[in-house]
Amino acid sequence: MNGSKMFNKSTKHEENFSCSICLDLLKDPVTIPCGHSYCMDCIKDHWDGEDQRRIPSCPQCRKEFKPRPELEKNVMLAALVEDLKKTGLQDAPADHCYAGPEDVACDVCTGRKRKAVKTCLVCLISYCENHLQPHYESPAFKKHKLVNPTKTLMESICSCHDEVMKMLMDGYETVSAEAERAEKQKELQVSRQQIHQRIQDQEKDVKLLQQEVEAINRSADKAVEDSEKIFTELIHLLQKRSSEVKQQIRSQQETEVKEFGQNDKSWCLYCDLICNVFYHNNVVTQLPGSDFSRIGVYLDHRAGVLCFYNVSGSMTLIHRVQTRFTQPLYAGVTPLWFGDTAEFIKPK
Q1: Which run of H or of E encompasses 105?
Q2: Pick among 1.20.1260.10, 3.40.50.300, 3.30.40.10, 3.90.1150.10: CATH of 1-94
Q3: Which CATH homologous superfamily contains domain 261-348?
Q4: What is residue 313's DSSP assignment?
Q5: Which residues pair with 277 in a beta bridge?
Q6: For residue 130, with 0-12 CB atoms within 10 Å meaning exposed, 13-18 middle and 19 or more buried, which class applies?
Q7: pLDDT digits (tens, 9 = 90+) for 145-195
Q8: No. of H helices and E strands in the chain?
Q9: Is the whole-model pTM more than 0.70?
Q10: Each residue's pLDDT tens digit, 191-213
Q11: What gap in Å lies between CA 64 and CA 48, rounded to an integer?
């Protein structure tokens, strides 16, 4: 009784730490993203041997990986396998797992074959417990018909109707391979139609997105164009307004200046960077020279003499008036521009 328990425990440990490809204890174990573990060399050879156009997948659950996973040694699992080897449990009798002369052998096992636990009437292959797992775990095998292993599988095929005889507990049931194939083709056609519809929907979404992007770009271009136009018009308007204001100020200043010298009771000297003009009794007299920063005025009221001098450097006469003054005279200054200043200085 104790030997039987030890045998079962040993077998269970060996199955837990065995590679489902080589069916031996794991060597340099690696765990792929789906959670199944294999010998590093076994899974590499398996993926290298697959059609290069196919996506790498798990041999047990058929889960696909894209891109191909990088394999790293599972250090913890390797340590457990080493501990299992040291305890000697792997040496416990396990012959009951392997097929004898009277047993149905697994068609997938290489080397020493294990006992088959089920036969698939769709695959027409017998599987051991390890190689049968994908039929339980992968949706791709959901409709496969599994029966107890039989050596007379090929004898159960009807040569007239190409049908497979499925053995049930209460008798026999005929499963039509043609019907199965037709059902598969129907499912494939539906799947293709769904994929085609999804592609069309995605193309429609992409087209709508492109149209939205183009509309946004057009709107942005129009906004930029309108903004540039508005800014250009605003600049022109400001320039025009600035010119009008300057002209208005200049005209106003000239008008104010001309108010002096527009009668026979006032005499006015107008000076700027361009010209010098003398006004009296609405008579305009152009004077030579320009840019007089300092002006000297000489008045001899009794003699009727009024003189204007340029005293910026050496004193030079600008204009002289000889007349008869009947009233007192007063000096006045009108700056031409905002910010201009003038100062009366008494002669030393």
Answers
A1: none
A2: 3.30.40.10
A3: SPRY domain (2.60.120.920)
A4: S
A5: 270, 286
A6: buried
A7: 899 888 776 665 544 444 444 444 444 444 456 777 888 889 999 999 999
A8: 5, 14
A9: no
A10: 999 999 999 999 999 999 999 99
A11: 15
